[in-house]
Amino acid sequence: MFKRNTIKKMVLGIAMAATLGMTANVAVAEIKDELRDPYLASFKGKKVAFLPIAMGFDLTEGWAEGIRAAADKYGFEFIIRDPNWNTNAGTQALTSLIAEKPDIIVVHNPDVQSYARLLKKAEKAGINIIQVNMKSSYSTNVYVGADWVEMGEAGANEMVKRCGEGSGTSGKVAIIQGVLTGAASVYQIEGVMNVLDKHPEIKIVANQAADWDASKAKAVAQTVLQQHPDLCAIFGFWDVMTLGAGAAVKEAGMQGKVAVLTNGGGNQMACENVKSGVFDKVWSYDVPGQARDMVDMIKVLFQSDSKPGDMRVALYTPLKVISKENYDPSICWSLKK
Amino acid sequence: MASSNAFMRARYKYFPDHLVGELLSKRWMESAVPTVILVAVFLYLVGTLPNYLTPVNLMDMGRLYAEFGLVVLAMALVMIGGGVDLSIGSMFALCNVAMLSLINMLGWPLWVAIPSVLVFGAALGAINGFLIGYLKLRAFLTTLVTLIIYRALFDIVLQNFAVEISGGFLDSEVWDFIGDGDVFGVPSSLIAFLIVAIGGHLVISRTRPGWHVMAIGGARRSAYNAGVAVNRTIFMTYVVSGILTALSAIFFAARLGSAGSDVGVGMEVGVLTAAVLGGISLGGGRGSVAKATMGSAIVLLITNGMLRMGMEGGSSSVALGVILLIAVGIDVKWLKNRHKIISKVYVSPAYLDLPSAPSAEENSGTPYEVNNRLKTVTAIGLGKLEGPEDVILDHNDNLFTGTRHGDIMKFSGPNFEKQEVFAHIGGHPLGMAFDPDGNLLVCVGGMGLYGIKPGGEVYRLTDQTNRTWYSVNDDSRLRLADDLDITPDGEVYFSEATIRYEMHSWSLDSLEGRGNGRIICYDLNTGKTRTVIRNLLFPNGICTSFDGMSILFAQSWNCSISRYWIDGPKRGQVEPVIPNLPGYPDNINRASDGNYWLALVGMRTPTFDLALKMPGFRRRMARRVAPDEWLFPNINSGCVLKFNEAGEILDVLWDLGGENHPMITSMREHKGHLYLGGISNNRVGRYKLENADPDWVGIDTYWGKPK
Amino acid sequence: MAVQRSDQNSVAGSRIKQFIKSLNAAWFTQERIVFAIAFILFAAFSVSLNGFFSVDNLINLMRNVSVLGILGIGMAIVVIGRGIDLSMIAVMAVSSAWTLQLMQNGHSLGLALLGGLVCALSIGVINGLLIAFVEIPALFATLATGIFLYGVGKSTLLDLDVIYLPENLGWFEEIGKGRIGPVPMAIILCGVAMLAAYLFLSKTRFGRFIYGTGDNPLAARITGIPVRVIITAQYTLASFIGFFAGIIVSTAVSAMNTRIFHSTMIYDVILVVVLGGIGLSGGKGSIRNVIVGTLLIGTLLNGMTIMDMQYTMQNLIKSLILLGAIILDSFLHPRNEETAQQGDI
After folding, report:
1. Helix axes B139-167, B110-129, angle to 10 degrees
2. Do residue C257 and residue A227 have CB atoms under 8 angstroms apart?
3. In this structure, which topology does domain A148-284 adopt according to CATH?
4. At what angle do helices C287-306 and C311-332 cross, to 10 degrees?
5. CB < 8 Å to A88, chain B
6. pLDDT (tens digit, 9 = 90+) per residue, C91-102?
7. Rounded to a whole number, what is the distance in Å from the CA of B257 to chain A's nearest CA?
8. Of the residues B309, B340, B355, which one is the last residue of a structural domain?
9. Shortest distance, CA C242 to any CA of chain A (angstroms)
């Protein structure tokens, strides 16, 4: 990462030197990039706030890193409010952010409802809202994140492939959701059902919430495995949480027999666990890519001077698949730190 | 030397040493530490966070505060009653989800749904209350288990209905008002909180159920023995706790409409912290609504402030942990040591320079020379009396005197053999006088000025005067009314010896040498009380002069008699009569020959006179030496003096052996005899006066002979 | 013949009487009640549940509660000394996570273990100092140090919420994953810890002093027991046990999730201890009580798992049974205004 950055800077430097040289040499021509100055000026004095569910895990750290890099480069202010997995603290933080009036708030909703009213209020106060990965029931200007319905369908299709007709398995699958009212759970289960409704041979023997918590996922998986030793697959809605389920499978000595499917930000951890066989397949929504999408949207909002409610844009992240077959450590990313 | 002396004099005159002890002994000083923290945190936040004092922000904070504060009040109530309720976080979550499902899923109207949720909260609390109040389970363990039970119920409900519950969105103006509305800028929930807080304060501090809760928390067994319905009261504290939690959850539901799975998780920690930080003790008996509101304000400001300062989740935990520890640590030490500090610093000596005492030795040539004339005193009620400070006799030769037990005793018969309780007052009766209607007016230590009708019926004249606006100690209450006399106009002048010490510790005042006493006037005609002279050094005996134009009063610690003009050209002035006595003067009374009797309760010693010039010495003594070893003025042996209007000493009566009447605090002449009282004696003495008018009755010089 | 018979009758009769007499309330200690409930549940599950009474399952049962049991030992020591330690979970999570973090940062196993141990012990000592010398109520001191340690861990010591165990650590991994014969290491370590704690509490002078301190701190002080030192030591010991449990957990699942601090695990630990019959008022109880409490919870959880109850429903039933146990105890040992201690919550 460090290297890449220096290279970037060098390229930039060369480019700038070149342009400077050009203007010096061909002063008469007066050809100038008209967009560049307003582009750079649009960042001045601007402020972006980021309100994740919590800091300290791959997704939010990755996003924050991406935005911070842009902030450092273009010189806008970037602040983070960390409610540390506490929805109530999150609402407090959002409330106070509205009072502080940054230009943009990047919000990572803990569930579809909690922030809805406050987001409405924020828009009324003229603050642009970018929602990340977890949508609120109230839609704002921009959504950047995974297409959860697609994600659910992908997982379900994989389960059908592995456990469906002709697979010779019991057809039993377990689904471990996150926080039930979180967007990632609500829309993902919708996608899963879209597919499984057409495949009655797949039996969902457990469909439980583990609140994004690995230890709860482990407890749920243990229960299911004890009751259904012939389980075919477990589909967990987030890799960090599903790791608990994977551990339970490993402890029960059923690795290889029970497929563990999940999705996540594509952190190094996911690759390692695919390699070691804890996960059988991981769909990654590539956090650095999402971070770039966010920065792009921030740029758009700054330059277009658009007011809240002017547009309804969704940038669904393209998915990457990580499995033993296509395993390549470079698919994954890791934090600098 | 002289300059340093002057400096010392000024330093002790103007520097208010005594305020330290008085401030510390204030009840509200218990909350001093939390208050300081609250103010400091608030000022810091105002200083660092942008837009903190804007109305919008304050309103938002108000909403958060109201929700949190209601739950803290719930916890506080339970804690004051000696319990603890760890399950409130789970109750909160259940009530929140109940409210949302009633309106979003079942579509109930608000006026049905809100009371239902309150009842639901009460029911949850009632389960706790039943288990702890009636089945007598341990509060900590029981609510720990109900915490898990309620949380499990909540999880089950959420698992099945979460999406439906948070899917709906009630569109109602009332609901919006509850969640987001305000009245003149005050958020709706804050109004509700204030109503509950004020109501709660009144209930806890002013009503029987509130006192019962305090009593149970303070001493459960005593409360039970006193007949308090312990079980039911404890039960009710949990029910009320449930209702308050439900109320808070309703506001939360209205504000956010969120049925997140983490609602209320860990809430008990914050709430418990707030309660303890505010000064509500674990184990019960100590606490108030004000303390709960303060504690919740501190915790909310800190947690919210750290969130807003953009602190990482981890750092804010560190800060919270450290603040919690420091605050509780200081508070624990403070509560433990406050009384120690008070007992060390309350006595605050001042500088007092008395002229050297006239001698009372034999052949010294002073009018005070000792003799042994009181050898012939006979005792009345020997062994049947304790602490007759003053004595008085009426026309029918009945003798009245007070006792330590709070009674006025009446002795009658030719030799005062018949003894009966004339009236029971309760406090220690000190100075006495008859008013024109024959009522006996009495100064009662610790109570005030009282009257007794001839039939023995006690009535109160006054027990308070106007409060000085700058006083720290409440000086409106009468602590130590000492002696009194009545003017022809019907004004009762009475002395209050000190406003800094209670009846039982009056002798400590002698160590201070500061003017802590005052003379107060009660008007029998108007019933009004006013303070006449302040800053006197233990004003004691009071006697109206024969012409009714002035009153004479004694100040014990500076050993002087002064005159206060109440009429005539010098009205309102104070002038010295006897500036320097060899002992500490007590009561003054009229004598049959137009002069005055004065009791000296004890004699001065050079050591103590010297000590009075060394306040630093006395301060060190009071701090470092055990009270039993302190240097006190001698109040064991004294004498009776007679002086005239000009202040000349005419006669002196001593009891050399100290056997008959060792300590004299008062004397009353009646029909040729002198009756002697002493505050630590077990008798009244009777001394035959030679050359005295055998028919002279003291009251007649006031109100004339009865017709 | 007839005479003999009546003799027998009377002997039998008096024995029955004796037995009934012995069945008075004092016999039913909470420990025995809980043990009886655990036994009844165990028997019922064995009969009715397929696959409950098998070696594999019983080992599974014990393995699942072994960490709870180990934490229970630490809590028991503190509770016997009339305290409570709410920081145990934080110590367990952060100190062991820091050990993993140190290894991830490239330090040696020994240094990493030392780092984690120092971290755990220092919190224990701080707890002890705050409680014994500053005289802050234990509930608060440990609550605050728990929050504090979690915060320090999150903000400075650790990179992320979840720290993973590096691979190829040899014997170290065996702590959580290994087996001796069919028995998992975790169970053996739990057993060893319990035995050590039992010997410590009942056979050593120091252990007896803890009882004395817990029973009546003032009297203990007058007797000459260094009460403050004892209190500090007991919290340090609890923290050490927390670290020990953390190492087992992290090696078992190859990771340590510090968010476990936010779970209700600490309440489970307290329940194990108190349910087993160790009173919060101190001075009473032994490691036996911890074993009984742990077995009840373990049997319950395992049985319900086999019955395929939902995770949430399990919590509900578990807590209802716990409630039942304390209610039963209150009927057998009624507390009234005469026996209730002031300030005993």
Report:
1. 160
2. no
3. Rossmann fold (3.40.50)
4. 140
5. 262-263
6. 999 999 999 999
7. 6
8. B309
9. 18
